[in-house]
Amino acid sequence: MNSSAAVPPSLLAADAGATVRRLSHRIGDGHLVPPVELYRVLGALRLLADDLTHLLPALQGRLEDGLLSGQVVRHGGGDTEAAWDSVGEVGRALAHAGTVALLMTKELENSQVALRDLATP
């Protein structure tokens, strides 16, 4: 049995956030980061941003699937149209976040390319 299936997605996201915060503290602690290491960090962050561009639409899809199956309902009752409106609002926000993540992916790639000459031994 795959033990990662038992870990709730919210905990996985929290772990990812904690890792980024640890990275931020490590980079911000005043120690010089060699260009080759910075190049690798930028590459890993670019992959992370790219992964987000794929995750966000999947989250929206699961939300819509839950609404269609009746597993997602609006708290306090209410009509189905109000629930769909809420899901649509989430979808618009996630689409915007996906666009931002796509732009971040491209800018991290641009940063990595600009750093390449400094990172080459």
How would you summarize this macromolecular structure in one to three sentences?
The protein is mainly alpha-helical. It has 3 helices and no strands.
Structural features, described:
The chain is mostly helical. Helices cover 78% and strands 0% of the residues. It has 3 helices and no strands. It has helices at 9-27, 35-69, 80-119. Helix 2 runs antiparallel to helix 3. The longest helix has 40 residues, at 80-119. The protein starts with 8 loop residues before the first helix and ends with a helix. The mean pLDDT is 91.
Key terms:
elongated; mainly alpha; 121 residues
> How many angstroms separate the termini?
44 Å
Net shape: elongated
Radius of gyration (CA) equals 19 Å
Output the helix-strand order. Answer: HHH
> Structural class per helix/strand content?
mainly alpha
Average predicted confidence as pLDDT: 91
Q: Which runs of at least 5 residues are low in confidence (pLDDT < 50)?
A: none
* Helix share, percent: over 70%
Approximate strand percentage: under 5%
> From the structure provided, what is the oligomeric state, counting identical versus distinct chains?
single chain
Please describe the biggest sheet, giving its number of strands, its sense, and whether it closes into a barrel: none
Please report the total strand number as a whole number: 0
Q: How many distinct helices?
A: 3
